[in-house]
Amino acid sequence: MGELEQRIHKIISLGEGITTEFKTCGTQLNKNIYETVCAFLNRDGGTILLGVKDDGGISGIEPSSVENMQKDFVSALINPTKLSPAAYVAIERGEIEGKIVLSIQVPSSGQVHRCNGRIFDRNQDGDFDITDHTRLVAELYRRKESTYTENKIYPEVGLSDLRLDLVARCRKVSGLIKPDHPWQDLDDLELLKSAQLYAVDQETGRWGVTLAGILLLGKDETILAAVPRHRTDLILRKFDLDRYDDRDLVRTNLIESYERIMAFIKKHLPDPFFLDGILRISLRDTIFREIASNLLIHREYRNAFSARLIIENGQVQAENGCIPHGYGELDPTCATPLSKNPVIAAFFREIGLADELGSGMRKLMKYAKYYGGSNPKFFEGDVFKIVVTVPEFRDIVSERRAYAPENLPEYIPTQLKGNPRVERLLLHMQGELSQSQIMKSMRLRDRKNFAKLYLNPALQAGAIERTQPDSPTSPTQRYRRRS
Prior knowledge:
There is one protein chain. The chain is α+β, with helices and mostly antiparallel strands and 483 residues long. The chain folds into four domains: 3-145, Schlafen, AAA domain (Methyltransferase, Cobalt-precorrin-4 Transmethylase, Domain 2), CATH 3.30.950; 149-226, no CATH class; 232-389, Heat Shock Protein 90 (2-Layer Sandwich), CATH 3.30.565.60; 398-481. It has 16 helices and 22 strands. It has helices at 3-14, 33-42, 66-77, 134-145, 164-177, 188-194, 211-217, 220-226, 254-268, 283-297, 342-350, 359-372, 396-403, 420-427, 435-442, 447-460; strands spanning 20-23, 46-50, 83-84, 90-96, 99-106, 114-115, 120-123, 126-129, 153-154, 198-200, 207-210, 232-236, 246-250, 275-276, 279-280, 307-312, 315-321, 328-330, 377-380, 383-389, 464-466, 479-481. Strands 13-12-16-17-20-19-18 form a seven-stranded mixed sheet, with helices on one face. The longest helix is centred in the middle third of the chain and has 15 residues, at 254-268. The two termini are 45 Å apart.
């Protein structure tokens, strides 16, 4: 059973509720489906399962109707007379008990939406029209204004709870980037107000520092009082796979967190020579500048999940808590960039630590394949994850010394010398070994990358051979150095 099917089963087992709705939709869409989409957008988001009865029974969708049903649904969502403003909604096709079920993931929106000119909200009993209820509509708008966690105001937090040296530093950096930057003529409090880091609570009339201000510029004790679980865990895990080879647990403001992330990256990852046209650029710094800022800017700080960056053999994984707008692997060529914390993102841009929304991701897609040999992968859910392939050269020297103290062994073909991956593979080829045994010896875990970057190049160059050349996919296949 695939991941989608498992998720559908779990949703069905929990039944309908404030974030779940089942609709039969045998051959055509239910007329009230768009009211449910509108209600989910206006409330907390949710999942709509098409082809499922109210009691959780699987009715399925007629196979011949699936394609038209999907097209009609997507077309309606971008039709302003049906849903306003338009919304992006992910729809996936699964198979349960041999029947087709469509899963629609509706995000919580930062705007108030209308369906056919009416405003719908959601409660445990379903969708309800609140258009003519002035108080409920007003409450909905107020709720949307405070959707972003970063906007929460802490009236008890003032300038004395912030790192004013960081404020001065950010003012200086902004001036270096743009000499006429308006921050240059503002005092500390005016700068905070200008950056939307110090605001007034409309209900109480009290002023205070926002969560964004605390995270960006707060003293460590102020940050941990507001967000006790705030931390970014940086881990190197190449040889000690059960624990780690190096670690930095970062629990400070976002500006210095960014600097420590980049320092950890520079300590443990290579920066190969690369020319973009006639200009030399740092592939490593360009790629991980985007990943580091994503870990800090686009994190959902209400989520207790600790952000992590893990450097392993051949790849880096970056994970942070998220309010998902969909589930599963993302296609960055067609995904719509959404800012999770626009105030924090804007502040990072003013001090040169981030690009405009979407442009950093394009750089990551452009340069990652030159750096590690493949495109990065993005996975969205309650935890957002980026996986980037990286080159390996660290530990090669120590391995060479262990296996060949003087020079590279004679069994490494001349044409493969200088290819660190194949050199490393051949150093581990002692006797006849299965793919799993070789990977274990090399402390590698990704079978796909191992085959692509290590095994296949060595086979193609004739440096190693299969023990069963006529059955390359045999489960008892072994490999050995060619004598």
